[in-house]
């Protein structure tokens, strides 16, 4: 893989002076100039690609933009909602062509090292955006690092948890399960005593990770540069998920739009347990039949034989390396506003999203939010993913794997071997295989 483009050296944090002024010689960027600027004097037009859910989350981000414009009336934000599933490749295509890329992107955590390695992002080192770096959760900030530089700031952090319908759990008289075996029993009991399905396992790559981690597995060993996705631990983890479906503890997942099916059944109280993240809290809250957040339970994902483990997730604000210098001041101010502790508290209060700033947890809207309180320990104990440029490419093959094993009933070991071969051929060819 091409690790650094020809132009990236010229776009280093010192040379591009993203703190708003050009640098010469050893002179430090004059970041303070921006702090003293009259907000009304800043004029620019910025395009922001928002990859959040357009229906459930997008309106809240648009409200924040209105608040930003009340302070910065001459900075026009071209807000564009870009489907998450399309955004990674769409951004790479536009950046490679040097046309059509946004000035600012809401990037999934695994995308940042990849985009940075290709020269598509500004390094933010030395800019005002990292002046309060110590206020960020260290795990969330880590996904923005590549080759010793920082290319983004963490917007939200998240992880997968066990979401459940309190009413159904209490009606069936079961305890909140702490292991996959306990989940199997609880789901079967709920089905038998209430007639409602106990569980829905989503057959998607990201959602298989708690099963793999639960048996001590992983995708790659970055320290030893080895592909381990087809390990015996991962075979065991997939078979745990498969057994939940084969035993009837879980609904047989749909081959198409399984995620949408899962959420519809959960919101309509037709399934008691699902594995999902805080980004769906607003969706569940708005569901007429569910019973509000008072009926939503949140617990860590169940443990396998080795541990309980869910992947760290979240999104970061990044700046396209093609943004002209004259827009830099406006871009910095926009991200600073959107990612302030107060703005993060708004997202937590209205959407249940987890702040990445430590100071945000001191704000009443966050402190008093039961959903955030429930998800915070889930996120803090999450498993770090490999922060390498290829990290965002692991999930296409995993999605195929999940469908093959959990929907098409194919052999777990054979499908994992195929993923390992795909990784070796197309994703991390320099890594060794088992």
UniProtKB/TrEMBL annotation:
It comes from the Bacteria. InterPro entries: SBP (IPR006059). Keywords: Signal, Transport. Residues 1-17 form the signal peptide. The keyword Isomerase does not apply. PANTHER family: MALTOSE-BINDING PERIPLASMIC PROTEIN, MALTOSE_MALTODEXTRIN-BINDING PERIPLASMIC PROTEIN. Belongs to the bacterial solute-binding protein 1 family. This is Extracellular solute-binding protein. The lineage of its organism: Bacteria, Bacillati, Actinomycetota, Actinomycetes, Micromonosporales.
């Amino acid at each position: 893989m091409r690790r650094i483009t020809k132009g990236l050296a010229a776009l280093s944090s010192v040379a591009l002076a993203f703190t708003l002024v050009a640098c010469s010689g050893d002179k430090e960027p004059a970041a303070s100039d921006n702090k003293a600027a009259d907000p009304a004097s800043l004029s620019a037009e910025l395009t922001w690609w928002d990859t959040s859910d357009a229906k459930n989350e997008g309106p809240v981000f648009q409200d924040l933009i209105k608040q930003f414009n009340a302070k910065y009336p001459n900075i026009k934000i071209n807000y564009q909602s870009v489907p998450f599933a399309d955004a990674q490749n769409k951004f790479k295509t536009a950046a490679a062509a040097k046309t059509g890329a946004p000035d600012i992107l809401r990037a999934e955590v695994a995308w940042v090292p990849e985009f940075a390695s290709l020269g598509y992002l500004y390094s933010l080192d030395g800019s005002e955006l990292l002046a309060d770096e110590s206020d960020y959760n260290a795990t969330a900030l880590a996904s923005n690092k590549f080759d010793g530089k920082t290319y983004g700031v963490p917007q939200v952090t998240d992880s997968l948890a066990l979401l459940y319908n309190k009413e159904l759990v209490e009606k069936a008289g079961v305890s909140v399960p702490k292991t996959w075996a306990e989940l199997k029993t609880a789901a079967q009991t709920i089905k038998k005593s209430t007639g409602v399905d106990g569980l829905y396992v989503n057959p998607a790559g990201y959602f298989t990770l708690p099963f793999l981690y639960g048996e001590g597995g992983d995708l790659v060993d970055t320290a030893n540069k080895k592909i381990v996705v087809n390990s015996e631990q991962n075979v065991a983890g997939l078979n745990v998920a498969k057994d939940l479906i084969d035993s009837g503890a879980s609904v047989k997942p749909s081959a198409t739009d399984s995620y949408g099916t899962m959420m519809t059944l959960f919101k309509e109280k037709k399934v008691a347990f699902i594995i999902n993240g805080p980004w769906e809290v607003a969706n569940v809250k708005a569901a007429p039949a569910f019973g509000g957040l008072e009926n939503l339970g949140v617990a860590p994902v169940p443990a396998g034989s080795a541990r309980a483990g869910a992947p760290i997730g979240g999104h970061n604000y990044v700046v396209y390396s093609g943004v002209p210098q004259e827009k830099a001041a406006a871009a910095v101010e926009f991200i600073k506003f959107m990612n302030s502790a107060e703005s993060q508290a708004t997202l937590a209060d209205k959407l249940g999203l987890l702040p990445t700033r430590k100071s945000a947890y001191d704000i009443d809207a966050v402190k008093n939010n039961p959903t955030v309180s429930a998800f915070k320990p889930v996120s803090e104990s999450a498993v770090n993913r490999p922060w390498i440029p290829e990290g965002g490419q692991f999930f296409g093959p995993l999605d195929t794997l999940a469908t093959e094993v959990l929907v098409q009933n194919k052999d777990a070991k054979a499908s994992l071997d195929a993923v390992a071969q795909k990784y070796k051929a197309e994703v991390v060819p320099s890594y060794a295989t088992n």
